[in-house]
Amino acid sequence: MAEISTMDRNVPGDIGSSPSQRPAGKRLARFAVRLVSPVAIIIAWQIASMTGVLSPRILASPGEILGAADRLIMSGELITGLAVSFLRVLFGFSIAFVVGVALALAAGLSRLGESAIDPPLQMLKAMPFLGLLPLFILWFGIGEAPKVGLVAFGTVFPIYLTLHGGIRGIDRKLVEAGRTLGLDTAGIIRHIIIPGALPSLLVGVRYGLGVAWLSLVVGEQINASSGIGYIITYARDFLQTDVIVVCLMVYAIMGLLTDGLVRLLEAYALRWRPEVIA
Question: From its record, what is one biological process in GO terms (predicted)?
Fold first, then answer.
């Protein structure tokens, strides 16, 4: 019986097998099947544009979008705008990460800190933060500060909420065991609190990066002189839907790439978890 169960576990393509144990051909086939509907949509989109059913003023054809992307890349305008937008996200997210982690530690490790910090943050979280852009312009002017500030303000809440929840969700018995082993407060935070709350923090980082790019889309529409949002604003004035779609795709691709980067970091930092290894 033991030999039979062992053989069953090693059968390729078994439902319970991990993705790494499945044949490469089946994985490739499943990937090809998933591509059918997107490819069909693109073909139908191109046909509708070529036959005049879909006006270029409403939405450019896939061919025109590829041509616009090629022009923007070759001219260097897209690369320069992407670099500026990426730096805005980087600065805004860095500020939000430091502030969010500090607030979550203060509120999660202390009842007094939670009473003082959590209520106002919960109130601010309920506000539509994108609507704060006019106030940011009044406070900080029309330069880089309101754009970076909007990214930071929108991103701080996912980081704070997930890390605070992760800290509060740590088993108190682990803390007691740490004190029994002679760990002081700093040791408990380093060896118990931070590792236990790290999965929640990484979830907040992934969600926060998505919010950061969303915030930037809005922030760069206001008096921007550079960046992807500036290209969109310029294209909107001249009804260039192909350029607008290219820029929106760049935002989406950057969001996917940054999310993938955090996934790699998560796989490395949490490699002791079986679900990450699998």
Answer: alkanesulfonate transmembrane transport
